[in-house]
Amino acid sequence: MPVITCIDDLKRIYERRVPRMFYDYAESGSWTEQTFRENSSDFDDIYLRQRVAVDMSGRSTASQMIGQDVSMPVALAPVGLTGMQCADGEIKAARAAEKFGVPFTLSTMSINSIEDVAEATTKPFWFQLYTMRDTDYVSRLIERARAANCSALVITLDLQILGQRHKDLKNGLSAPPKLTAKTIANLMTKWSWGIEMLGAKRRNFGNIVGHVDGISDAANLGAWTAEQFDPTLDWDKIAKIKEQWGGKVILKGILDAEDAKMALKVGADAIIVSNHGGRQLDGALSSIRALPSILEAVGDQVEVHLDSGIRSGQDVLKAVAMGAQGTYIGRAFVYGLGAMGQKGVETALEVIHKELDVSMALCGRQKVSDLDRDILLIPENFEGRWQS
Ligand SMILES: Cc1cc2nc3c(=O)[nH]c(=O)nc-3n(C[C@H](O)[C@H](O)[C@H](O)COP(=O)(O)O)c2cc1C
């Protein structure tokens, strides 16, 4: 068994183990992938202030997100088709999150259903909602999430229309994979993935198949998306969904201070500064670069979370020290899952926890609540000065 010391180690194993189609699906951004790349590289522009001779005993990474205790300010982001990266992937990731004491967010586009995950876990998880044209279906999804005791609804706002990722089109991405000559040739080299997948509880979209009438091609994500995601979603509709849910609501995909103010107006419990991991609007700012202006606009009135580009505990530290109350990892946990199933997700969380803990200590801080911008060296004009 190789020694895993960083998220990149998991990524290397993941790449070897999982069919190319699903590796490419995760490891892509839209169009030129500029935003996808900068989501991570912009973290490198921020430096940490090393401080010494500070008592570092009794440290803790424990914190809270939307009033819930978390062992570190890191949740698992909603990731569609997680159950194609590894058999029963959502169940395994949810169990790893529960064991580690961080929130798990189940995607609408998951393979394991809401009920599958509820049955396999003991603590409430969060459910991510995509709004669909079929409002009855959306209502039923909300009711299913309620019945499963989900403790927050994460409404994704940045995918009314799908960003183009070249590789998915070229690979003919689908769940389960369509057996073309190219796919079969690749699957022949991924035996362990395939054998496990034969025993999986499900191999298609568990929240959709069997719950919606008249889907023309449920196996084809692109076609289904084009048909079903609601292009008319607006703030009034968001307010109505919030009312229907009645519990905690997190609005995901905010990248602009004006939208953050609207989110505040509809009464979000938290917002996630996110560009969907660079998978939607290519050419948009990285999340970490967009964070300061959003914090300035609404940071004292609503909890601000961040995702996109986080690959280490140092990235988490930078986002939290800048003012985010919590962060999410998408690809970083997918690498672990694809590499080694539940154990791999646990390893990804352990790696990030250790990096966060040690970096915090070397910055002279003992607790997450002690973190502030004072530990960061942020270049002047990091947020940019844009012409109006
Ligand atoms: C393969 C993949 C699938 C995703 N599917 C969803 C989804 O179904 N719903 C959603 O709200 N976000 C989805 N996202 C976006 C993630 O929730 C999150 O915003 C993003 O992964 C954060 O960037 P990171 O991967 O760099 O951590 C997906 C991301 C990836 C990589």
From TrEMBL:
Q: Which SUPFAM superfamilies match?
A: FMN-linked oxidoreductases (SSF51395)
Which parts of the sequence bind glyoxylate? 25, 165, 276, 279
> What molecular function terms (GO) are annotated for this protein?
FMN binding; oxidoreductase activity, acting on CH-OH group of donors
What are the names of the required cofactors? FMN
**Residue positions of the active site:** 276
The lineage's top-level taxon is Bacteria
Q: Which residues bind FMN?
A: 78-80, 107, 128, 130, 156, 252, 274, 307-311, 330-331
Q: Which GO terms describe its cellular component?
A: plasma membrane
Q: What InterPro entries has UniProt attached to this entry?
A: Aldolase_TIM (IPR013785), Alpha-hydoxy_acid_DH_FMN (IPR012133), FMN-dep_DH (IPR000262), FMN_HAD (IPR037396), FMN_hydac_DH_AS (IPR008259)
Q: Matching PANTHER family, A to Z? A: 2-HYDROXYACID OXIDASE 1, S -2-HYDROXY-ACID OXIDASE-RELATED
What is the similarity comment for this entry? Answer: Belongs to the FMN-dependent alpha-hydroxy acid dehydrogenase family.
- The protein in question is named Alpha-hydroxy-acid oxidizing protein
Natural source organism: Shimia litoralis
